[in-house]
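Risk register update: the risk of archive-format incompatibility is retired. Evidence:
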Amino acid sequence: MHIEESTFAQMCEGEWWLANGAGGWASSSVIGANTRKYHALLCASHPHSKIRNVLLSKFEEFCIVEGKRIPFSTNFYPGAIYPQGWKNLLSFSFDGAVARWAYEAEGARISKEVWCEKYSNITYARYTLLSGKAAGIEIFPFVNARDAHSIGLNKQIMNIREGMREITFSSPFAWKIEANRGMFRKNEDVYHNFQYLLEKEREEAFEEDLFCPGHFAALLGEGRNITLKIGESAAEKLEKGFENSGAINKKYLEPEKASARMELIVKKFKEHAGVADAKMQRLARAADAFIAKDGGQYYVVAGYPYFGEWGRDTMISLPGLCIYSGRINIAKNILRRWVSFLKNGHLPNRIENGEGIYESADGFLWMLWCIGELEREGGLDDAILREWWAGIKGALASWIGSNKFVEVEGDGLVSLKGERLTWMDAQIEGKAVTPRAGKRIEINALWCYGLNNCARWAKRMGDEKFSKKLLELAKKASSSMGKFYYAKEKYFYDAIEPFDKSFRPNQVWACALQGIGITKAQAKNAIENIEKKLVVGGEGLRTLQIDDKRYAERYCGNMRERDIAYHQGAIWPWLAGAYVQGALNAGVDAKHLHDALLEPFLNVRGGDAISVCEVYDDATHNGGGCPAQAWSVAEVLRAFALVEREMQGILPIVAAGNSKRREI
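Archived output:
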């Protein structure tokens, strides 16, 4: 059964993002038409600079059966869609490891599969004749060599070397496309005016030319395939030849092996997180995309395609991506690196070219929360705590003594010295959209929680004096947290000193974190208000209540318009994690949380085929920002795990080294 025209627009909106684990990706729309400048069969992270480069934009394919030439690909041009291969598309599926299509051409059925070699800048595409008469296939590479964030043909890409079954490029580094059979026929040309519809919607540059060096051709009998390999032309990889390359990951070179690896990841998540819901597999698959590796060092990619290695995002994402998913050793590997970046009490907002960029105040607090989650899940042994303790203690000393971004005042609470030091940091022409200096609710909730954790860890490290000092400060700060509560309206102010009564989702952390001086009654009242005013099932929490005069309903348009709405009404999925934790603390029924908030997340509506986007537009409920965002996936996963455990009566692993869960 062919795809109906009525579903064409929906399929254009649907995307798949296949991360290669080296910082790059393969991606496109479901129909194979690139709708973003970021879509590519290989967007590679540069081996040294880590700059992402769009190398192979796409393949254009034609099948020849009994003299008839049938297209499989689709492109958007000014005023035209050509070719219209989507009309020959039978099905599409994506399991997080392999994107699969089935096409029909004059009775012949051909499958297309795309997958990546994990932790390498290598993509594969395999075309197999499943049934029908012998068919010829022609595959035209459309290439570029530009920074992923720019647009326009890099003419240096036209310097090529070709062989019988391969083409080699030298820009921006050596890479090639090679086939396991058939032949390459050189016929250089430039195709003009490809249009990327999603870039046009964002009022960004949306049109470019692409270079085609020729095409690969093969004759397929039933059961036969042609496989193309695209990637780095390093001596240890492609230059050894198609059959011998990629020895490290050889068992995953075939799509079946890539899918099998993904099934093992899903199995580990289900076993560790205690999640029985079969539908949750989709998010467990999505989580793997954000774990990348450079040599022996793992790291988190904050979001595709816009973000790289970001501190706050990493700390918020690690529990859901790794700690609750049974990948605790990877979490430790990542945390170890970030601890080494602590400087004057702060964590870098992001890492670029191996250097930390320090622009935020809350990264260290999120690190303490993340390590606390590691402890809850039984992963914080004394050896790793001892390794990290000097860095943690030094950062705490910097906070207690005041530093560049924060000051601990007489009431024990933290006051921020700048307007863009938290996650709500959008700016327009250098001016903060949501200025958040002073004593902020989530900052101080995390501060009190972190102090309690660190006091306990200091005691584990035999540092009784420092532990006592931290406990005294935690007691003072916690006794001041009540000042945030607005008893008349039953919610927590976003800030005190300066006073900010904005009804925002940041207050969920005062409800989620225990032992910080907030009463259960206060938390329960706030959660009830948050559910009424901010919660949107299947999407997350609004960043501002609707009846606030600053509320922006639409997240769309150009960058300025999007930045205005970013934290002034846009819905953020990542906030679901803290909300669910706070709601459970307040006694809200777990099944209600599952059915009203979480279950709708599993109903895919456009965007990435399995992932969760960065934000949602509150008017149309369309996804926005990154189509695949690490902390969105991670915190929704954690929320599911918390709810499922509550419903099943499963307690967390509190004691380090306890390998088995205790059940009530």
